[in-house]
Design brief:
four-stranded antiparallel sheet; 5 helices; 4 strands; Alpha-Beta Plaits; 12% strand
Amino acid sequence: MSVVNKLDEEARNKTALYNEFKTQKGNMSKKDGANLAGKDLIDVLTPDVVKRTGGPDDDFIMTEHVTTVPLIIPRGQEEDFLKFCESMDQYVEPQSARKFEGMDDKDGNSLWRVVMFRSAIDAFKKACREKRFLVKDFEYSEEAYKKLKVNRANLDESVKRQHELVRGLY
């Protein structure tokens, strides 16, 4: 293969890598403007928002038999949701429904959580679907949030580095 062909192939590879990084970054920023149903909860429930003192008033309670389930409740259905939770007492810990204040999206959807037995999650999800409440699969982890921040910073750096390389090629 000639030197020109090798250089051309290398330029194409670097351009493809740059485009891949740029697409990944674009996908992340699309979710930033989405409503609660489209967002990753790890971006919404950050360590500075979630209360974790180790007591019963924590936002997320996780044990061997009990877990916290986050839900998205459509605008105007909060009272229906609270009645629904109290009627689901075989699954949900009574009076454990709590709204995350200041988390409403532009459509008026709100983010709530309930504490319940792990063994009842599937039945609870099914009952929520019937009532049009969206259960989000999410387990809060401060370590996962920190890891995500590092990965995003690395991706930003990769995009900048690849952009400089590609800009120099053309």
